[in-house]
Every structure is written in structure tokens, then in C-alpha cells.
Design goal:
Length: about 375
């Protein structure tokens, strides 16, 4: 098993997570339903990817104009993107990950009600562009959208040169693999049909869809979920409270957003096919998840959720684990002298340790 050495002011952490992580961006309409938060937590806690951004998406829809309530919200005066942003910040704070950029997205669709493709510029669109431009040559950013696709489409319209440097994974629409018929009558798509059409028509864009029928089998039972969540842990309490607040009478919830995140992280739990875009769009091929292993996905979510950030290794207590990865701690003999001994050349010492941090290389050890 491989490990790395990281330096924290005299403390070396040896971990098996040295391999470069795939950079991921998540765009979420977190204020809409309760499953977005579960998807966010799953992605943040995964040790094999690096979440470099979490942007908020709107969920503006006609019902907000004609009904007094939307889920648990009063419809009047509801700023949907602001609510998504509030919850994004709340969950990141609970995970001690406010260091992850979390810009606010657009508050409405691109273009107008009759179509068009005018971008809806926002902090999120600009941050997505900046994150892609900052990538080392040859790297790509994987972008997951679990709401209206406004921010992603806007970024591509504003900076079309980023198209070749991203892979897009989106939740939305309906697709029947037997008849090969598409249906755009779906919540995320309805909230910005212009954005979806733009992405479908964009030749060369690497796009994978998680459509409703593929995601539907991933369902959580309310009482089972409440039992598994630990209210003494802030993040898990937020997840439980969200179900209480948004969908208290629902005994079962489809975990739409979590299905996409799990499928992205665990492609071996899915069946993917190459499909043709709808006939009204530019005819090109994209990919679509056709089937998922919902039981394995659910088990995997709970396993990752319960991983402690730093703890003793469950097999051999002589080792630690960091975010689920076997880890060794190596302390430095001059840790205190580096800052307390006036005759000690602490600048040279700290510089040497910093250099060694990157030059130690990758070695192997077994946990037994």
C-alpha cells in the first residue's frame, strides 16, 4: 500500500493518498429538496477526489408564483439561489471545509422564456471559468450539476474555450433506453430548458446524463435514515434536520442527487450507454446512465459518511487512518527547538523539512 509524507510544523503524516486527485466541481440547487445535502457530504468526504468548488443553483419555477408554499418554504419573497447558498455554507462549515470555494450562482435561467442563449453571469460562472483556466496543462475538471444547468451553460457561453477541458455529469430529463425516447418534462430541465438545450447542442462537449428512471431506485427510508444518523455529530444532525424540515411526512425519499454523485464516484456500480440526443436538438452522441446498483450505492454512502477524519486504523492500532486512508505519523526531533531555541537556525530547519516534504517520494507499507 502506498503512502506519502506531509509536513505540518514538524509533524509528518504518511498516507496512502499521494496519487493526484481528480478535481471536481459541484453545482447544486441545495435549497430545493433534502437530498442535495447528502450528495454534497458524500463528495466532500470522498478521499479520492478533490472538490475545488461548490456553487449554488436556483430553482425558480412557475409554482412559486401561484402557490403559497414550496416544500417547507413560503413562496412569497423566496430567493431560491440565496437559500441554496445558505445551505451550502452551512454544510461546508459543519464539515470544516469552508476553504472550498462556494460562489453564488445565477438567480434565473439563461436567455428568455421563448429561448435564446444569453448567459446569466454570476460569481459561480466566473469561478468555474477561473478554476478551469488554473488547471495544469492536460488536466480536466469534472463538473457535476444536480439542479438547473444555468451556471455551467453560462460559463461555457462566456468562455467557450473551456469546453475541451471539462467533463460534465448532469442530473435531469427522462430517457427510455428501450424506445430511445427523451422527455424534457422534468424539474431540473424545466428550470432552465435553454441551458439544457445549449449543452445538448454543443458539439464536442463531454456530457453524461443521469436521467430520472436510472436514479429512481436509490431510495432511503425515513426511520432507517434517522436511526443511522448521529445527532451528536453536527453534519449528520443537519442531514436529519433537513428531512424533518422539508419532507417530514415522507416515509421514503428518492435520493436523486446522491445517485449521480455515487455513479460518478463508483462507475462500476452503473451501466452506461452511448445515446443520441433528442431529435429536436443537434444530433450527436452523449452518454447516459441506464442502470445503477442502488443497494451498493446506499451501503457505500453510509460507509463513507461514518469515516472519521483522523482515527486509529481498525486493523492495526499501531497505525492511524486519515479520511479512511492508512496513515503513519512521524514527529520531528527539533519541533520545539525550531521556535524556542535562540541559537537554533529555525529558518533553515523549517525550509529543509518543507523541501523534504515533497522529496520523500512514495514508498509502501502493509497494514497487518
Amino acid at each position: 500500500m502506498k503512502y506519502i509524507i506531509l509536513l505540518f510544523t514538524g509533524l509528518l503524516i504518511i498516507s496512502s493518498g499521494f496519487a493526484q486527485k481528480q478535481k471536481v466541481w459541484l453545482d447544486a440547487d441545495t435549497g430545493n429538496e433534502m437530498d442535495d445535502l447528502y450528495a454534497i457530504v458524500r463528495l466532500v468526504k470522498d478521499p479520492k477526489v478533490e472538490l475545488v468548488g461548490l456553487s449554488s443553483a436556483h430553482f425558480n419555477n412557475p409554482d412559486l408564483l401561484v402557490f403559497e408554499k414550496w416544500n417547507a418554504y413560503e413562496s412569497k419573497g423566496l430567493n431560491t439561489v440565496a437559500e441554496s447558498q445558505r445551505l451550502n455554507e452551512q454544510i461546508l462549515k459543519s464539515l470544516n471545509r469552508l476553504d472550498i470555494p462556494h460562489p453564488t450562482g445565477a438567480d434565473r435561467q439563461i436567455g428568455r422564456a421563448w429561448g435564446q442563449q444569453d448567459p446569466r453571469d454570476s460569481e459561480a460562472a466566473q469561478a468555474i471559468i477561473a478554476a478551469i483556466i488554473a488547471l495544469p496543462e492536460g488536466e480536466k475538471l469534472d463538473i457535476l450539476t444536480i439542479g438547473a444547468m444555468t451556471n455551467l451553460a453560462s460559463a461555457l457561453i462566456l468562455a467557450p474555450e473551456i469546453k475541451s477541458r471539462i467533463r460534465c455529469f448532469a442530473l435531469g430529463a427522462q430517457y427510455d433506453p428501450k424506445t430511445k425516447i427523451w422527455n424534457k418534462n422534468e424539474f431540473n430541465i424545466r428550470n432552465d430548458l435553454n441551458a439544457f438545450d445549449y449543452l445538448l447542442n454543443l458539439e464536442g462537449l463531454d456530457l453524461t446524463m443521469m436521467c430520472l428512471e436510472a436514479a429512481r431506485p436509490l431510495q432511503f427510508q425515513r426511520e432507517d435514515t434517522y436511526t443511522k444518523l448521529d445527532e451528536t455529530i453536527e453534519t449528520e444532525k443537519i442531514l436529519e434536520d433537513r428531512w424533518h424540515e422539508q419532507n417530514p411526512h415522507d416515509e421514503t425519499r428518492v435520493m436523486w442527487d446522491l445517485a449521480l454523485v455515487e455513479a460518478y464516484l463508483k462507475p462500476n456500480l452503473t451501466k452506461i450507454e452511448t445515446v443520441t440526443t433528442p431529435p429536436e436538438n443537434k444530433q450527436r452522441t452523449i452518454k447516459a446512465y441506464i442502470k445503477i446498483d442502488e443497494q451498493a450505492m446506499a451501503e457505500n454512502f453510509w460507509k463513507v459518511l461514518k469515516i472519521k477524519l483522523f482515527s486509529l486504523h481498525p486493523i492495526n492500532p499501531n497505525y492511524f487512518q486519515y479520511n479512511g486512508i492508512p496513515t503513519i505519523l512521524v514527529t520531528s526531533g527539533e519541533h520545539y527547538s525550531a521556535v524556542m531555541n535562540a541559537d537554533f537556525d529555525y529558518e533553515k530547519y523549517l525550509l529543509t523539512n518543507t523541501i523534504n516534504n515533497w522529496l520523500m517520494g512514495v514508498q509502501e507499507f502493509e497494514v497487518f
